[in-house]
Amino acid sequence: MTGDHDTRRGPFEPGAYPANPRYGEPRRRSGLNRFLGGSPVAVFVKLLFLSVLVGAVMAMFGLTPGLLFWQFYDLTRSLIDLGLDTFHDFGRWILAGAAVVVPIWLIARLLTVSRER
């Protein structure tokens, strides 16, 4: 019978490697491996490779981290200013509409109340 149908072995726990066929016991991952998503050396090599790749692309386009920061800052400020201008316009629309709607509603309510008596 194969190990897939063995009822003595429970399901794997989260964070455990598949069972070692030689010993049949699942190996636990350390907290550091779980946090990093792999062994520290492998993660370091991946990050080093990606850093060189991204740095080369940024150098091709003439970008620096400081320039990216200031462009992001300017974009955020312009979006905030745009949003506040929209709220300012929205507030004017509310006041203009309320100047017409509220008196008409008040007159309609007064006429309805006087008819009900």
Give a verbal description of the structure.
- The chain is mainly alpha-helical.
- The chain has two domains: 62 residues, no CATH class; 54 residues.
- It is built from three helices and no strands.
- The longest helix has 52 residues.
- The N and C termini lie far apart (90 Å).
- The mean pLDDT is 81.
What are the main properties of this structure?
117 residues, mainly alpha, elongated
SSE blueprint and pairings:
Blueprint: H1 31-36, H2 40-61, H3 65-116
In total, the number of strands is: 0
What is the number of independent domains?
A: 2
> Per the principal axes of the C-alpha atoms, what is the gross shape?
elongated
Structural class: mainly alpha
User: How far apart, in Å, are the first and last alpha carbons?
Assistant: 90 Å
The biggest beta sheet reads: none
Mean pLDDT: 81
Can you write the helix and strand succession as a string? HHH
Oligomer: single chain
Beta-strand residue fraction:
under 5%
- Total helices: the number is 3
The stretches of 5 or more residues where confidence is low (pLDDT under 50) are none
Helix amount: 55-70%
Taking all Cα atoms into account, the compactness measure Rg is 33 Å
Region (Disordered): 1-25
Keywords: Membrane, Transmembrane, Transmembrane helix
Transmembrane segments: 43-70, 90-111
Biased composition (Basic and acidic residues): 1-11
